[in-house]
Amino acid sequence: MNKIIKRFFIFILVIILFLAFSGSYTSLSIDNIETVVAIGLDTSTTNNLKVSFQFTNSSSVSESGTTEQSPSMVYSIDASSISSAINLMNAYVGKELSFSHCKLIAISEELANTGISDEIYTLINDIQIRPTTNIVISKCTAKVYIENSKPLFENLLTKYYEVFSNSSKYTGFTVNATIGDFFNSLVCKSCEPYAILGGLNSENSSDSSSIESEKDVTGKSNESNIQGELGTENFGIAVFKQGQIVGELNSIETMCFLTTRNNVDGFLISIPDPNSEDGVIDIYLTPTSNTTIKVKLLNGSPYIKLNYRFSGRIQSASENTNYLDDSLLNEISSACNNYLESILSDYLYKTAKTFKSDINGFGQEAKKNFLTLEDFEDYNWEEKYKDSFFDVNVSASVKSSLLLTNT
């Protein structure tokens, strides 16, 4: 009896091992798939869409033994849909496309102007595309954007696509936006979608005349004054109303967005010097607490009160200025508060009056004014947000730099 049981378990083990390793010889073998690292979506003159796929090898090793940047290849196809484009590309490359390592979805501004809800639904429905995939709205064509996306300090393009948006945490000039967040906001009744605003670096852009300002904080993609080897740049936010782009935010407005959403660790601003008519002072600000937001309804219109708190360190210095003087620091703190209240108010009214888009998600707080979700939906927050007015209060305590102290 024991021998029979033993043989039975051996038989079961053989079956399990056979099933486990048999997949290596199926059509899903690694030899029969090709990894896509980025997808580009553009308008097409011959069909509904132009879909671009970017492929790359994991790495390449030079003759000297040093690791070089992995080469990438971009192939495009005009098709009636994304699914059709994938099917046609499978046949073209002779392998099945895999999107499990896709790190970026680039969509041209031209296509976003027509609405991209269907494209977002299709992409999020693909189980291989991760919700954490970055989404970029490009001011050039999406194909040109991904062709020019070449990292300087990373060997793997996928790594660059994965980390470039992290600078939002310490600069406030770009945003970490994913297709998962975009989809959630698209189906949400209390907020609106947004995406990273991308484009070509001014040295690579054929439209250098679009650069309207040389100020550091008012630039955005395709309009910065940076000169370097990077072919693309990512400054600002693309603002959507439902599935259609309605406007753009520049660098300082992006900082306002991130501060309001509590998604920034610190940022540098330049405020007018209270003791110099033409001078400015660079201050690095760090939020000391989350922004508090309260929404009330007054005569049917949203009244939104926001409180921001920061601590600041003066970064710039001049020879004849005593940043150890308490009265001077109080003046600078007051000037900083006034400056921040001004730009934050301008930003908030721009989202409400110009874009009519609640990318800040104030609708989540507004729900507290209603007894039921049905009551909130009947109020139609997406439409009423444009009637909002704001009360902005900023408290910033500015000190001298870490080196210039009495200690």
Number of helices: 12
Strand content: 25-35%
Write down the Rg.
26 Å
Seen as an oligomer or otherwise, the chain set is single chain
Q: Structural class, from secondary structure content?
A: alpha/beta
Q: How many strand elements?
A: 16
Shape, please? globular
Q: How much helix, percentage-wise, in residues?
A: 25-40%
Counted up, domains total 2
Task: State the end-to-end CA separation.
Answer: 86 Å
* Main sheet makeup: 9 strands, mixed
Provide the succession of SSEs.
HEEEEEHEEHHEHHHEEEHEEEEHHHHE
Poorly predicted runs? 23-27, 59-68, 208-214
Compute the average pLDDT.
Answer: 84
Kindly list the characteristics that best describe this protein.
407 residues, alpha/beta, GMP Synthetase, Chain A, domain 3, 2 domains, nine-stranded mixed β-sheet, five-stranded mixed β-sheet, 12 helices, globular
Structural features, described:
By secondary structure, the chain is α/β, with parallel strands linked by helices. It has 2 domains: 34-256, no CATH class; 266-407, GMP Synthetase, Chain A, domain 3. Helices cover 30% and strands 28% of the residues. The protein has helices at 2-22, 82-93, 109-112, 117-124, 142-147, 157-163, 179-186, 251-260, 326-354, 362-366, 373-379, 381-384, and strands spanning 33-42, 49-56, 60-61, 67-68, 72-79, 96-98, 104-108, 134-138, 194-200, 232-241, 244-249, 267-272, 280-287, 292-298, 301-314, 389-399. The strands form 3 sheets. Strands 1, 2, 5, 6, 7, 8, 9, 10 and 11 form a 9-stranded mixed beta sheet that branches. Strands 12, 13, 14, 15 and 16 form a 5-stranded mixed beta sheet that branches. Strand 12 (267-272) and strand 13 (280-287) form a beta hairpin. It is globular and about 90 Å long. The N and C termini lie far apart (86 Å). The model is unreliable at 23-27, 59-68 and 208-214 (pLDDT under 50).
